[in-house]
């Protein structure tokens, strides 16, 4: 099966205009079984509550039944279970769709097929949900564009509720550029129209992708590839007087411009471009700011203390200087992300302070290790160290509330901390290490 997908990828790369007419047959028993084994077992279940273990008890029989329905074209995805997760730094909640386990298997197979085709088409400006391309890679390339190119203005854009407003008709039109297999297209359309269940009621979905579904990231990338990436590369850049660059991670993107008028023309054109495809710019969260090697000097001339900042992928980017006095882009954890994580940690400690001490500290160490792996990048260790200190303060507070009697004074807590230390932050990712990304920017 992997060999067949590799062959599709080779054909897609060699023939950019080629349309694939026979793909649905790839969703055979071997493919679906492979998808089953690759799926994580301990995940939230859909409306039927089927787990991976339960499905695996009669795996061959279940897959044969699924294949039979797919061949008869009677397979229809079960409506997803709608759940809500908190949005970091706000009181709002983000809707999340949880598919039934069998639908996850099919979505996994569809994602493999779509990735094998479209990974050859996607541009280097796109980083989200793609193999061997991480958030850190996007930050590294953005750093090159700002520090080593003629970037003087940043356009920071937020698309309002992107996953909820993807136009289904346009989505299918974009897929038809590369796929002419009615069976596969029908299956994708049924996932888009599958609807969701909330509090026992069924709701239709006339727009949007099933956020939370395995196939959603690749569908989102395909949509924005045609709506945004190609438009910027083929039209916007050609109309600009100076240099222009874009870095996109899923629906979060930043554009760099050399000249002010180019940035403003793009900003206005982008509103119309998004509206054409059923999307809307969140104007309260989008902005054009002076940013780059001359921004600090220009701000002083205008009487401002320092240039404005922008947030991208959880980091606040600001203008700084190297030890030698040269311009550098620096980053620190965004205030919203940091406060959200601190709140989450505080609530967990409050609810679980009755657990064994070793269990609590082991959980916190694992959590901090994951946090460090993402946020410990060049220039950000002081901010992460502050985060660690605040976590330490939470531990002191909530371990002292395990009973009516105070457990620690500060001296005893220092001794306790020596026995159960939290890891200290060190740089995990260098923004200036471009060994894996150099091909993107040549």
UniProtKB/TrEMBL annotation:
Domain of life: Bacteria
Transmembrane intervals: none
Keyword terms of this UniProt record: Nucleotidyltransferase, RNA-directed DNA polymerase, Transferase
Gene Ontology terms for molecular function: RNA-directed DNA polymerase activity
Span of domain Reverse transcriptase: 66-317
InterPro entries: DNA/RNA_pol_sf (IPR043502), Group_II_RT_mat (IPR030931), GrpII_Intron_Splice-Mob/Def (IPR051083), Mat_intron_G2 (IPR013597), RT_dom (IPR000477)
Transferase keyword on record: yes
Keyword Nucleotidyltransferase part of the UniProt annotation: yes
Pfam families per the UniProt record, alphabetical: GIIM (PF08388), RVT_1 (PF00078)
Stored SUPFAM superfamilies: DNA/RNA polymerases (SSF56672)
Cross-referenced NCBIfam families: group_II_RT_mat
Protein name per the record: Retron-type RNA-directed DNA polymerase
Source organism: Halalkalibacter wakoensis JCM 9140
